Amino acid sequence: MRRCTSALGLAVLTVALATPAAPALAADPIGGPQLAGSGIIVPAGVQAPPKTKASSYVIADADTGEVLAAKNPHGRFLPASTLKALTALTLIPLLDKNKTVKPSQAAVNEEGSAVGLVPKPIYKVHDLLRALMMVSGNDCANALAEANGGMRETLADMNEVARRLQANDTVAKTPSGLDKPGQSSSAYDLALIARAGLKLKDFREYISTKTAKFPAPKGHYEIGNHNKMLWTYDGMLGVKNGWTSKAFGSFVGAAKRDGHTIIVSVMRHEESFWKDVEQLMNWGFANRGKNAAVGALVEPLPEVQPSPVPSALAAPVPEGNAAVSEPARPEGDGPGVLATIVLGGGVVAGVGLLGWGIRRKRRQSPTASS
After folding, report:
1. Where is the signal peptide (predicted)?
2. Is residue 71 flagged as an active site residue?
3. Inter-CA distances, 365 with 89, 125, 145, Å
4. Which residue positions form the known binding site for substrate?
5. What CA–CA distance (Å, rounded) separates 97 from 133?
6. Catalytic-role residue among 38, 56, 71, 84
7. Which label site among 34, 191, 205, 236 has the fewest CB atoms less than 10 Å from its CB?
């Protein structure tokens, strides 16, 4: 595991809060030692962000990766539908957006928020990803997992992406974010996931679309994005909100003003969080570039190059354009063979950011609330 080694060396103000106890943290957490605190973390001499009933939050500069302020950033909580940001980030590079999908009856019947799928081959992957992020369709999450080879394979892919991002507080047990024992994330991890997603063109499209037409057995109907701030907050790019009775409210979002992008994530908010998120965003824009950071959103882990295969053991290469079968995927949730990635010192753009360390290429196969 690579840890942030930059010497931040800043005094911070940490305020003890009466929040549920979080699991013990490493002495040097991902993002820097100051992010080990469970209270409010700001540079010394800087006024803290407005009060919020969220148990955890992160305010970060998406351009530089600087964490500007935080509260219990590595506290682990149920993510609810904010986990769908990881689902989309994982599946966008893997699935052909024009592939036709016929959802199973089980996917159609998934509980919680839904777009209203029917078990008919009338949907494209593009439709399902858009509805996943716009209207938080749990039915879409399951249908996409089916298109990706199944629930087990999709969860393994999601957890591998989290590992590559160094989102070590995140464990995906469902693609929808519906509560399940052992599932978790943190405000810090949600910010990492959102920052990575913003580098994917399709991800940016899905999170920012306000209204769209969605296929129906006879024509289509219109769906609207559940992120209220797309209509009310200047420069809002979107990302994802969520809620369950156990997780309470969660949100991760990004806004861009004057060429600068701020990310805010909150977890376990006991009431309506929209006003609090707006105030935290405003604080981020007002303070970016003016004060020392309290931590950093780390870059994905660098790729480890596989050892070369001795020529005597190498399989013969088919002539012409004959298809080459992919290596068999190992069973279980362990990491597979990772795609090569070259990481620079700054922001990495495009799908090549992650190739996602997932060994499979974008499939071109045929039809197949929280």
Report:
1. 1-26
2. no
3. 20, 12, 14
4. 240
5. 15
6. 84
7. 205
C-alpha 318, offset from chain centre: 39
Residue positions in the annotated binding site?
240
From 56, 136, 176, 184, the catalytic residue: 136
Active site annotation includes 38:
no
Give the DSSP letter string of 338-368. Answer: PPP----SSPPPSGGGTGGG-SPPPB-----
How far from 195 is each of 87, 161, 255, 265, 351, CA to CA, in Å?
14, 13, 11, 11, 13
Main-chain dihedrals φ then ψ at residue 128, nearest 5 degrees: -70, -40
From the list 309, 21, 75, the residue with the least C-alpha distance to 190 is 75
List the pLDDT tens digit at each of the 370 positions of the chain.
Answer: 333 333 333 333 333 333 344 444 445 799 999 999 999 999 999 999 999 999 999 999 999 999 999 999 999 999 999 999 999 999 999 999 999 999 999 999 999 999 999 999 999 999 999 999 999 999 999 999 999 999 999 999 999 999 999 999 999 999 999 999 999 999 999 999 999 999 999 999 999 999 999 999 999 999 999 999 999 999 999 999 999 999 999 999 999 999 999 999 999 999 999 999 999 999 999 999 998 999 999 999 986 666 666 655 444 544 443 333 333 333 333 333 333 333 333 333 333 445 444 445 444 433 346 7
Which one of 3.30.420.40, 3.40.710.10, 3.10.20.30, 3.40.50.10470 gives the CATH number of domain 12-306+338-357? Answer: 3.40.710.10
| Catalytically annotated residue among 81, 186, 250, 265 | 81
